[in-house]
Write a structure and sequence with these properties.
The chain folds into 3 domains: 63 residues, SH3 type barrels, CATH 2.30.30; 34 residues; 33 residues, no CATH class. It contains 1 helix and 8 strands. The relative contact order is 0.10.
Length: 140
């Protein structure tokens, strides 16, 4: 990507994900038999305003704060997805999924009392009365 001399760029460190603003202070174009190579020198915001070749820094370079933010948010979301996927994989390995299926003869519903209420066997000799009008239609 090309930069303009004087342009401010944002450098995202590969080592510790810190962000450093820098200014492009030099563009060097070298033509050789192998081709053309463009390199840039940046001025860092330290006390001495040190200048370094952009190629020598272990960074990703962004031309705007919003571009940097989008990149970092994408990486964060990706990391979160990976953590959740790992937890789900562990869940599958560690815990056996069980589903209870009732045979028609094993129905816990003892008898409908009226149009809206049914008596349900809760096990252990305990029964309950359920108002069916309060249960959503899609799960009845």
């Amino acid at each position: 990507m090309g930069y303009e001399v004087g342009q401010i760029v944002y450098l995202l460190s590969h080592k510790n994900t810190s962000v450093i603003p820098a200014q492009i202070v030099e563009e060097v174009c070298r033509k050789t038999l192998e081709g053309e190579n463009i390199s840039y020198t940046v001025r860092l915001p330290d006390q001495n305003k040190n200048e370094m070749s952009l190629d020598k820094l272990s960074v990703d370079t962004f031309v705007s704060a919003s571009e940097l933010e989008n990149y970092m948010m994408g990486k964060a979301k990706e990391g979160i997805r990976n953590v959740i996927n790992q937890a789900q994989q562990l869940e599958k390995k560690a815990f056996e999924k069980t589903s209870v299926s009732l045979k028609s003869t094993d129905s816990p519903v003892l008898a409908p009392e009226d149009g809206n209420h049914v008596e349900v066997d809760l096990g252990g000799g305990v029964t309950g009365r359920v108002d069916m009008s309060e249960i959503p239609e899609e799960i009845r």
